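Structure in, sequence out. Go:
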C-alpha cells in the first residue's frame, strides 16, 4: 500500500519541480534579457515611425522637385511612390535587425520569397513594367482625356500597378497598366484644339450654297469656336432625294463638349430660321 502511494506521488513531485524550473528560467530571462528586449522593441518602433515619416517626406520632396524642374505630375507621382517603397523596405530590414533577426539570412529569405511571389504574380509584374513604360514614354499625363484599356475618361493617376480614370458621369475606373499598354491609346487632349463635326441631312431641293451659308452662320455666332482654322461646310454623302452636309469647326480642347452642345443647338436654330427642308418634310410633300 505504501509503495503504491509513493509511486503515485513521485510523478506529481517531478511535474512540480519542472514547473518551478520553468518559472525560474522565465524569471532569469526577464531579469537578464527582458529589459534589453523591451528596449529593442521600443527602439524598433521609433525607427519604424521615423522611417515612415522620412519616406513620406522624401516622396513629397522628390515630387515637388521634379514638378519644379518641369516634369509632369504623372511622372513625379510615380517616381515618388517608387522611392517611398524602397525606403520602407530598408526601414523594415533595419527594424528586424534591431530585434535580433539575422538580416543576411532574412535577405536571402526575401530573395527566395520574391522569386516565388514573382512567379505567382506575373500579371502584377507585367503591370509594374507597363506602369514604368507609361511614365517613361508618357503617351498621356494626368488630366488628359483618353480612351484606353476599355475605358474612357480623365486620367487621375498612373500608379505602380494600376491607373485611375474619372469618367464623364463621375465614375472612378481603375485599370491594370498592362491593359492600357496592351491596346490602343487615344489621347483626346494631345493637341490644343479639336475638330467639331455636325452632320446635317437635308432635302435635295435645298441648294448647297444656301445650306452652307446657313451652317456657317451658325458657327459664326457660336462662342468658343475658333476662327483659325476657319469653319467649313462640305457635302459628305449623297442619297436619293437627300444629301448630308457636315459643318466642321475647331475649338479649344478644354471646351470641346460645351462647344459641341452649343453648336448643335445653333445649327438647329439656323436651319429652322432659314427654313431648310429636311428629307422627312420632302417625303411628306411628295405623299
Amino acid at each position: 500500500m505504501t509503495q503504491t502511494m509513493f509511486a503515485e506521488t513521485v510523478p506529481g513531485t517531478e511535474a512540480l519541480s519542472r514547473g518551478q524550473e520553468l518559472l525560474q528560467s522565465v524569471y532569469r530571462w526577464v531579469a537578464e534579457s527582458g529589459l534589453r528586449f523591451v528596449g529593442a522593441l521600443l527602439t524598433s518602433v521609433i525607427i519604424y515611425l521615423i522611417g515612415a515619416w522620412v519616406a513620406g517626406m522624401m516622396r513629397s520632396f522628390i515630387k515637388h522637385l521634379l514638378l519644379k524642374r518641369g516634369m509632369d505630375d504623372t511622372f513625379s507621382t510615380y517616381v515618388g511612390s517608387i522611392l517611398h517603397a524602397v525606403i520602407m523596405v530598408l526601414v523594415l530590414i533595419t527594424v528586424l535587425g534591431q530585434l535580433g533577426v539575422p538580416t543576411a539570412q532574412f535577405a536571402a529569405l526575401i530573395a527566395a520569397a520574391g522569386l516565388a511571389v514573382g512567379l505567382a504574380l506575373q500579371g502584377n509584374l507585367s503591370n509594374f513594367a507597363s506602369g514604368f513604360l507609361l511614365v517613361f514614354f508618357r503617351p498621356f499625363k494626368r488630366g488628359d482625356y483618353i480612351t484606353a484599356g476599355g475605358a474612357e475618361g480623365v486620367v487621375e493617376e498612373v500608379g505602380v500597378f494600376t491607373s485611375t480614370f474619372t469618367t464623364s458621369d463621375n465614375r472612378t475606373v481603375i485599370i491594370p497598366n498592362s491593359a492600357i499598354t496592351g491596346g490602343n491609346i487615344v489621347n483626346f487632349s494631345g493637341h490644343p484644339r479639336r475638330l467639331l463635326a455636325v452632320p446635317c441631312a437635308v432635302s435635295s431641293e435645298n441648294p448647297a450654297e444656301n445650306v452652307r451659308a446657313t451652317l456657317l452662320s451658325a458657327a459664326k455666332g457660336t462662342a468658343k469656336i475658333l476662327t483659325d482654322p476657319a469653319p467649313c461646310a462640305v457635302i459628305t454623302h449623297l442619297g436619293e432625294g437627300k444629301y448630308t452636309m457636315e459643318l466642321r469647326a475647331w475649338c479649344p480642347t478644354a471646351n470641346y463638349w460645351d462647344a459641341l452642345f452649343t453648336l448643335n443647338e445653333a445649327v438647329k436654330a439656323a436651319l429652322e430660321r432659314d427654313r431648310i427642308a429636311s428629307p422627312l418634310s420632302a417625303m411628306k410633300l411628295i405623299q
